[in-house]
Amino acid sequence: MAKDAAIHLNDYRAELPYEAIDLLGTIRNWGNIQVAIEEDKIWLKGFTEEQVNAPEIKQLPGLVVYLLRDGLLFLRNALVPSQKMPTALLWSPVERALQLTWPDFNHNYFGIHEKVAARLVQKEEEQIAFAFCANMKAIKNTIVNTPAFKLALMKWTVVGNKALIIGTPLLAFPGQSYWQKDGHLLPSGWDFEFANLSILLQQKYNPDQSNWLLWAQNGSYRAIPKAMLRELSVSSFRLTENIY
């Protein structure tokens, strides 16, 4: 009996608002997790001790984790139960239960502003600038007066009527700077409201990693084909400048 008690595992149950169902995509490969839907909430069970403390779980908005004892749900470290565990639930594996729905976008049209269900918020963390988007006339003198070997460390393309320059170390260009996260180019000082959206969005909209996803503060993005980027040089800049 003592041996059995020593290996007893906690029976965790988690409650999540239904509107957060899309965010479960980050754990859809956790084959031991089961999901049930009850009106405006989602229930999850089957967690290991490691999983219930994992970042993927802690970052889910509105998530509440309970311990199940004799049909009652206790908050961790609580002595009094919070509620009864619903009994008439239909459980299924998370991968089968989760049906993510995404709007259809035209990924072949370069330059389109595409709205997605993601929100950027300001963050205090300092990030290293990885890209700049600047008016071509405003950076002309900097480009022309920069040694060729420094320019060769960077790649660039035209986005709208502006130059997008990627690489490190960047020159001191005027304009909007961006930092790199999982293949996203995010405005400096901004990040996704929910960190676990980053990889999920890449898996859906950029599975082959052929694009940079360039984000604006309002939550729209442009898919920038990496094949369109070319080495930055005075000659390539001047040639393109004459076109634009």
Describe the structure.
By secondary structure, the protein is an alpha+beta fold. It has 2 domains: 2-97; 114-243, no CATH class. Helices cover 20% and strands 31% of the residues. Strands 8-17-16-14-13-10-12-11-18 form a 9-stranded mixed β-sheet. Residues 1-8 and 99-116 have low confidence and may be disordered.
Number of strands: 18
Sheet of most strands: 9 strands, mixed
Strand order of the largest sheet: 8-17-16-14-13-10-12-11-18
| Helical residues, percent | 10-25%
Q: Give the percentage of residues in beta strands.
A: 25-35%
**Oligomerization state:** single chain
SSE ordering: HEEEHHEEEEHEEEHHEEEEEHEEEH
What's the gist of this structure?
The protein has helices spanning 2-6, 49-52, 55-58, 94-97, 136-144, 148-151, 197-205, 234-243, and strands at residues 12-17, 34-38, 41-45, 64-69, 72-75, 83-84, 92-93, 114-115, 120-122, 131-135, 155-159, 162-166, 176-181, 184-187, 190-192, 211-215, 220-225, 230-231. It has 244 residues and is of the alpha+beta class.
Record the SSE blueprint.
Blueprint: H1 2-6, E1 12-17, E2 34-38, E3 41-45, H2 49-52, H3 55-58, E4 64-69, E5 72-75, E6 83-84, E7 92-93, H4 94-97, E8 114-115, E9 120-122, E10 131-135, H5 136-144, H6 148-151, E11 155-159, E12 162-166, E13 176-181, E14 184-187, E15 190-192, H7 197-205, E16 211-215, E17 220-225, E18 230-231, H8 234-243
Parallel strand pairs: 14-16
Antiparallel strand pairs: 1-3, 1-4, 2-3, 2-7, 4-5, 5-6, 8-17, 9-15, 10-12, 10-13, 11-12, 11-18, 13-14, 16-17
